[in-house]
Amino acid sequence: xxxxxxxxxxxxxxxxxxxxxxxxxxxxxxxxxxxxxxxxxxxxxxxxxxxxxxxxxxxxxxxxxxxxxxxxxxxxxxxxxxxxxxxxxxxxxxxxxxxxxxxxxxxxxxxxxxxxxxxxxxxxxxxxxxxxxxxxxxxxxxxxxxxxxxxxxxxxxxxxxxxxxxxxxxxxxxxxxxxxxxxxxxxxxxxxxxxxxxxxxxxxxxxxxxxxxxxxxxxxxxxxxxxxxxxxxxxxxxxxxxxxxxxxxxxxxxxxxxxxxxxxxxxxxxxxxxxxxxxxxxxxxxxxxxxxxxxxxxxxxxxxxxxxxxxxxxxxxxxxxxxxxxxxxxxxxxxxxxxxxxxxxxxxxxxxxxxxxxxxxxxxxxxxxxxxxxxxxxxxxxxxxxxxxxxxxxxxxxxxxxxxxxxxxxxxxxxxxxxxxxxxxxx
Length: 427
Prior knowledge:
This protein is α+β, with helices and mostly antiparallel strands. Helix content is 14%, strand content 31%. Strands 6-3-9-5-7 form a five-stranded antiparallel beta sheet. Strands 1-11-4-8 form a four-stranded antiparallel beta sheet, with no helix packed on it. It is globular, with a radius of gyration of 23 Å.
């Protein structure tokens, strides 16, 4: 398991980690040579940070619950954690800035690299920590209402990304206040991410009827007149724990509403079947606070082939005092960096989001651990930079093509959704 690449990796870690997610002064302090073992030093890191996805039946392609599993991939583990590709977490962020933050410390990354470079020893099984306990089935308890796709969808073996919208009627005869929803795909390894919406207009049903594919749903990233519930963004990514909802916040579900599930499903080289259930958790308490989604961005994107620093800029001045609860950035393959700030009336500048290496494959909603209080007159700004040159390793086109705004993954987008709560009922 020793290799020059891992030795170089250790030198970099000891000299100082320059990744933006870590303070530049943080350096790895090596353990005594040949002292690191899987049982005592590696298993705790993998159990705490990786097992939520890397276990049987979950989204990751392999398990990391045993020494044998980890030893076979020791070099890969060292390399993907050093590059911060794993655990998947895009924002530059301080500890505990966001809920559910998935980051490793420089010390943890160094331990993984040193263990791999020194032969990936097992150690004494008596040192193994207890395996984490995972809640089977619905993570938030039994839902008040469960709906599901009428038929399974067959993802083809080849062809690249599949975006499919599944229309599911919601069988309620009266109004309900929804505290939260939970998505459970029966084959989560197939689903890259999902966006959930509601449609009272029947437009999604009409699009499904017109779709030439006899399989359930209709194709593309567009979801007709379907929309997010007022003030809520409903999304799912592998390993993301469902949100139990916030006190005083709920959204109104009317009879006759359809649920529209948009799933991104990369092809795997073989046909895959996928079916999903959605659980609704209701509340008897009407909302006492009301969230709003603000959108910064543009629909006029037009990036010439070869352009390496195309910018999308937008801003908005808050007319009232708000609390910022979360941000959701969205772009496709060509985006490289993302920045968003709040410029307060007194000149103070607060960072809302900074991503130095955008990856379309790991987009998420980022919920602040503590809401950011912003006064009236604060200017919200965003700046996204796109690279449509051949130097962008994530550019899907070789040679590069002119790319314009559009909902398909072959198009490009540039949105920043900011979820805010007004401070008063009048606001």
